[in-house]
Write a structure and sequence with these properties.
The chain is mainly α. It is built from ten helices and five strands; from the N terminus they run αβαβααβαβαβαααα.
Length: 209
């Protein structure tokens, strides 16, 4: 990722690009950093020292990840499995992240800014399961699994070891509560309140059926 982003920034500079809006991750400034945040941190520093103007977006994990990574078992087992314990996360809708990015790309005043982008509430996965149950009209259960069980499942899915470490590093930070902070950035930048998880579940209900 660092190599690809470095190449992209160099190409943008040669093309005369004046302003970069970069999608990073919440926690890219964390100390100590987990592996995924460390990679994004390296890219952020590279952009900051380039000659171009920039806006850095640090969103929390996306609502839509529940479709991508847990949608299958929600559909087939009415359950989802994550090594997150009862950790709360201020999840965000990708549509809100896109709205912040579009504003930063098309309006002035966002140069040199670093925006932490979160939803308006921090939810644990038990609460996520309750919301999904209410919206879908059937009982959805969250099953908290151990990190070792998650690692074994990712290995069975043939995910490379390096990627497994990136994913589990993020899960560890989320479980600890580090990703529960709430930011007002979405409303401040776009003038609109963040989309709630309940609204997301209603909008994407078909993906869980």
């Amino acid at each position: 990722m660092v190599e690809l982003d470095t190449t992209s920034v160099e190409a943008a500079k040669k093309a005369g690009v004046k302003h970069i809006v970069r999608l990073s991750v919440m926690g890219a400034d964390a100390e100590p950093e987990h592996p995924l945040a460390n990679l994004h941190h390296q890219v952020e520093k590279m952009i900051e020292t380039s000659s171009m103007s920039y806006t850095l977006l640090r969103p929390n994990s996306f609502y839509q990840n529940y479709i991508t990574f847990t949608g299958s078992t929600i559909k087939t087992q009415n359950a989802f499995y994550l090594p997150l314990g009862d950790g709360k996360i201020s999840l965000v809708d990708v549509r809100d992240v896109a709205a912040v990015a579009a504003t930063a790309l098309t309006q002035s005043g966002h140069e040199g800014k670093i925006y932490q982008v979160t939803g308006s509430e921090a939810l644990c996965n038990q609460q996520i399961a309750s919301i999904l149950s209410a919206v879908l009209g059937r009982q959805i259960t969250y099953v908290a699994i151990s990190e070792q069980t998650a690692r074994e499942a990712l290995k069975e899915a043939e995910m490379p070891e390096q990627e497994i470490n990136l994913v589990l590093g993020l899960y560890t930070a989320q479980k600890s509560g580090y990703y529960s902070n709430i930011s007002p950035v979405i409303e401040q930048v776009t003038g609109k309140k963040p989309i709630s998880f309940e609204q997301f579940a209603r909008d994407y209900a078909e993906a869980f059926k």
